[in-house]
Design goal:
This protein is an alpha+beta fold and about 300 residues long. The chain has two domains: about 1-145, no CATH class; about 170-295, CheC-like (Chemotaxis protein chec, 3-Layer(aba) Sandwich), CATH 3.40.1550. The protein has helices at about 1-10, 20-30, 35-40, 45-55, 65-70, 75-85, 90-100, 105-120, 130-140, 150-165, 205-215, 225-250, and strands at about 170, 175, 180, 185-190, 195-205, 255, 260-265, 265-270, 275-280, 285-295. Strands 1, 2, 4, 5, 6, 7, 9 and 10 form an eight-stranded antiparallel sheet that branches. The protein has a two-stranded antiparallel ribbon with strand order 3-8. The longest helix has 26 residues, at about 225-250. The chain is globular, with a radius of gyration of 19 Å. About 35% of the residues are buried.
């Protein structure tokens, strides 16, 4: 997740423009080699085993390497060796900016040092869930919007699931707190329990086609019921994983309502609701998150 938030940091520093960032993350997406691909290349896993692990990621909130070890396809040592062969995404993003003559190497070096110092990151190549939570908390803090622990945990999983199921080629922009937002095509799901969560994903119909194509691994051309079903399935999958985590880790039970769609209107939001624009090469999506304690209205 360091690469995604590094892009946001560069924007906040005025080092690059959103258009330059979009060009760079397109190149990042093309350059990235996944762990499963590396495992096949090195003869450590078969294609069917990799597909099985990718499928299991839709059922368990675990990284590819963790599941591969659990299934006996890889050892911990093999995963570590494969990870060492991967170039960290934040460096790939920086290199893309250099290759496109947007930054020079000296500027990139300074920005990486400043980013590491600003975020208090000790090891940018060995990210833990705690690191991600702290990264998200600081991301909101710098936008002058403190965020609660449950919200940070929810967003960490959401950002990770965007990487897993849609792609790593995105950057979140500064969050805002709002009581309403104009929507285009918006999928919403509510979760109730000791805390009440409302999550929405809003985007244009064209962006929804690309988002759904990536998620379903199909080439959708038209905005239709299959695109809508894919969007609903992504949000339901993510929230289902979050509910499992809350139950296993905190003994908090959440009930999920069916996702629903609203289009071309103004969405009224309860306090406190965060709107987080996220840039993908195919367009900008808005993540809209509301988290309330049970006694809040």
């Amino acid at each position: 997740m360091y690469a995604q938030f590094f892009g946001a940091y560069l924007l906040s520093q005025g080092a690059i423009t959103p258009e330059q960032l979009t060009d760079a993350i397109k190149a990042l997406s093309d350059a990235r080699i996944k762990l499963g691909t590396l495992a096949i290349h090195h003869g450590l896993m078969t294609a069917s085993e990799v597909e099985e692990v990718c499928f299991l990621q839709t059922r368990e909130d675990k990284k590819f390497g963790e599941i591969a070890v659990d299934r006996g396809y890889l050892t911990v040592a093999q995963v570590e060796e494969l990870l060492e062969t991967q170039t960290p995404d934040f460096l790939l993003l920086g290199q893309s900016l250099v290759d496109l003559n947007i930054l020079d190497n000296a500027s990139l070096e300074d920005l990486l040092i400043d980013y590491q110092n600003t975020t208090e990151i000790c090891n940018m190549e060995d990210e833990t869930d705690q690191d991600s939570d702290e990264l998200i908390e600081r991301f909101f803090k710098y936008a002058n919007y403190p965020i609660t622990k449950p919200a940070a945990t929810y967003l960490r999983l959401l950002f990770n699931n965007l990487i897993r199921f849609i792609g790593p080629d995105y950057t979140p922009l500064s969050p805002v707190i709002s009581d309403e937002v104009a929507i285009d095509f918006c999928v919403t799901q509510e979760m109730s329990g000791s805390s009440n969560f409302v999550a929405s994903i809003d985007m244009s119909q064209d962006s929804a086609i690309d988002f759904a194509s990536r998620y379903a691994k199909m080439d959708f051309v038209d905005f239709d019921e299959y695109v809508q079903a894919s969007m609903e399935d992504f949000l339901n999958l993510h929230n289902g994983l979050f509910a499992v985590n809350m139950s296993n880790e905190y003994s908090v039970e959440l009930d999920l309502a069916p996702p629903y769609v609203e289009q071309g209107s103004v969405l009224r939001l309860p306090p406190v609701s965060y709107v987080i624009p996220v840039i993908f090469p195919f367009g900008t999506i808005n993540l809209i998150i509301t988290i309330m304690e049970e006694n809040e209205e």
